[in-house]
Amino acid sequence: MADASTQAGDVVAEAHGGMPRWATWGLLAAALVVMVTGFLAWRGGGNADAELAERRDSALIDGRRLVETMQTMDYRAADEHLDRWRDATAGVLHDQLENLTEEDRQVVVDGKKRSTARVVDAALTKIGDDSAVMLAAVEVTTIDDASPEAKPAVKRNRFAADLVLRNGTWKLENLQQVAVNVS
Q1: What is the pLDDT of residues 84-94, one digit of tens each?
Q2: Quick count: other Cβ atoms within 10 Å of Cβ 135?
Q3: Residue 28 belongs to what domain range?
Q4: Is 183 inside any structural domain?
Q5: Angle made by CA atoms 93, 83, 73, in degrees to the nearest 5
Q6: Positive or negative CA dihedral for 32, 34, 38, 41?
Q7: Are residues 97 and 71 part of one domain?
Q8: Would you call 126 exposed, middle or buried from its count of C-beta atoms within 10 A (0-12, 13-18, 19+)?
Q9: Does 79 share its domain with 136?
């Protein structure tokens, strides 16, 4: 009887290219393990890139919003806008805004100006784990309510913004106007 089953196994092996059935299944299982392991390694290797892309996108989106916030002011709601500025900032810039005096606030109110900013274009020049540097082209429209006959003035400026990540939220740590040389 043992000879009959061995002969039957040999017949099956010959039908499958000379390999016993268990060897065929073993090779298929090994190939499947290799494919799954390779896929998981490939997918896991992309996580660092995906995290960087997500941090970059977040910094750019939030940075644009923060620059617009810092270039927008309405004298009729000066306290509200100054609070927005404080919420948008960190570090020394935040400390400077915290130390504004009533006289500083009154200068804004007495100026009777309303400005609205729109970031036209922006790009990150540097990104780290918790910091980024962004350049932004900004269009600021200013209305002077002290001179009702005056038309809205539109200015285009460029800014360099240092961003820091604080408790999962991007904040402006520094905002400087960038000079443009035309030569």
Answers
A1: 999 999 999 99
A2: 15
A3: 2-45
A4: no
A5: 90
A6: positive
A7: yes
A8: exposed
A9: yes
